[in-house]
TrEMBL record:
SMART domains: HATPase_c
Assigned GO CC terms: plasma membrane
Protein name per the record: histidine kinase
Membrane topology annotation: Multi-pass membrane protein
Stretches that traverse the bilayer: 45-68, 74-93, 105-124, 130-146, 190-211
An example molecular function term from Gene Ontology annotations: phosphorelay sensor kinase activity
Domain Histidine kinase: 244-442
PROSITE patterns for the chain: HIS_KIN
Lineage: Bacteria, Pseudomonadati, Pseudomonadota, Alphaproteobacteria, Rhodobacterales
Enzyme class: transferase
UniProt cross-references to InterPro entries, sorted A to Z: 2C_sensor_his_kinase, HATPase_C_sf, HATPase_dom, His_kinase_dom, HisK_dim/P_dom, HisK_dim/P_sf, Sig_transdc_His_kin-like_C
Keyword set, alphabetical order: ATP-binding, Cell membrane, Kinase, Membrane, Nucleotide-binding, Phosphoprotein, Transferase, Transmembrane, Transmembrane helix
């Protein structure tokens, strides 16, 4: 049985032989990373859309000035387009260094876009320019990329710009062949309105389709992550069951092995002693059957999403009563008043049992469990008078097979799944102290 226990620990802690150890490090941080990656992809799409817009404005201004021979303030417009190119280059560079200020940078970029479009429209007729509809693009982009308040700021900016342009703008001097023919000038305005609609609709469709692709890609990654987390829960439960088997079956199987070895080496004992040994063997077999039945029952219980709330003191008392380690467990309620309720699940109960097993294997003669409140958390502090933790474990090194390694790995993984944490320390008077940090889900 000792070889089985050592093999179980080796399988759990040798990352070369058990790659799932590294996979169990997956947390909600990865989901956040996936969302940030989708956000960066959306912003990259915005950068490309701005390149198309700059190119479109350049072509439109060149066509109107050169082909239609309509006089425009070319140099101010050209300077503004160069400024927009510089702004977009900065935005493209910023995508290579993503950080928490991306949304504020997007607000600033969109405000620059609104201001630039307002200036171009002011220089080209103001409210009479048929390309006033381009303001809707900034509102659409803001609605997709920004939180509601910031998107509302961009929307208000576009509305204010439109209202200001209604009464402001430099008049456009149409050439003679347009100004003397009223219908031709009106037709030119209608053509501009059509081009404005086409340009706005095309960019909006391209942007929305790109956003849909990015969202689909993000959802697929999140789905894969959720599936991997579920698989990790199964692995964790199997690890807990394997650790339980190594601890709970070790003593009865060792007793059976000793008796049978004596019979092989020394022969059958006298009848009265033989009957006592047979009774001990029957007790050991019954213990093994009971433990295996319990593990099979536990293995079929619902997952964490079907866990229930429980008082932590009652939970610890129940685990201590079910635990058959032979070491006395003292339970203290150090909370000042009625405490909160924590999430009770098989992962937590097996984690506590593993801590008790570790304390016993470390030579503890007594175990004390204290339940305390700490802000929004409930602390379950398990103390023993055993040999304590090696410095390597306290410093966060990879756990090695030994009295504490197996249980600590399983306990830490179980608590992480429940949104909690684990801290370790050696007591000044000797022994180990393990603190389980559990979020409260209700208050009594």
């Amino acid at each position: 049985m000792r070889q089985i226990a050592l093999w179980t620990r080796k399988a759990l802690f040798d990352t070369k032989e058990a790659p799932f150890v590294q996979e169990l490090a997956m947390t909600d941080t990865q989901a956040q990373t996936i969302r940030q990656r989708a956000e960066v992809m959306n912003l990259r799409l915005l950068v490309w859309m701005r390149w198309f817009a700059i190119a479109g404005m350049t072509i439109a201004v060149t066509f109107v000035h050169a082909a239609l021979q309509i006089t425009l303030p070319i140099w101010p417009i050209a300077g503004l387009l160069v400024f927009l190119v510089a702004v977009n280059l900065v935005a493209a560079w910023r995508l290579r260094r993503p950080g928490g200020a991306l949304s504020r940078a997007v607000v600033a970029d969109l405000m620059v876009d609104v201001g630039a479009l307002t200036l171009i429209l002011y220089w080209t007729g103001g409210g009479t320019n048929p390309f006033n509809g381009l303001f809707i693009l900034q509102a659409i982009v803001a609605a997709f990329l920004l939180p509601p308040i910031q998107a509302g700021v961009i929307f208000i900016a576009t509305v204010v710009a439109q209202l200001w342009l209604l009464n402001n703008g430099l008049p456009i001097d149409l050439p003679m062949h347009h100004s003397h023919a009223g219908p031709s000038a009106f037709d030119l305005h209608l053509q501009g309105m059509f081009l404005s609609f086409f340009f706005s609709a095309a960019l909006a469709v391209l942007f929305i389709l790109g956003i849909k692709d990015n969202l689909a890609s993000r959802d697929a990654r999140l789905e894969r992550l959720a599936r991997q987390i579920e698989e990790e829960k199964v692995v964790l439960r199997l690890g807990l069951m394997a650790g339980t088997a190594a601890h709970d079956l070790g003593t009865p199987l060792s007793s059976l092995a000793v008796i049978l070895d004596d019979w092989v080496d020394l022969g059958l004992p006298p009848p009265d002693r033989q009957m006592r040994q047979i009774a001990a063997m029957q007790t050991a077999v019954a213990t093994c059957r009971e433990r295996i039945s319990h593990m099979l029952t536990v293995g079929g219980r619902p997952r964490l999403d079907e866990a229930h709330g429980a008082d932590p003191v009652a939970l610890v008392r129940e685990v201590a009563e079910d635990w058959a380690g032979g070491t006395p467990v003292t339970i203290r309620d150090d909370r000042p008043g009625p405490g909160g309720v924590v999430l009770a699940d098989v992962l937590l109960t097996r984690a506590l049992a593993n801590l008790f097993d570790n304390a016993r294997e470390a030579g503890a003669k007594a175990i004390t469990v204290a339940v305390r409140d700490a802000g929004a958390q409930t602390l379950i502090v398990v103390q023993d008078d055993g040999c304590g933790f090696p410095q390597a474990i306290l410093q966060g090194a990879e756990p090695e097979p030994g009295p504490h390694g197996l249980g600590l790995f399983l306990v830490r993984s179980a608590l992480r799944r429940m949104g909690g944490g684990l801290s370790l320390a050696n007591r000044p008077e000797g022994g180990a102290e393990v603190t389980l940090h559990l979020p409260r889900i209700a208050h009594g």
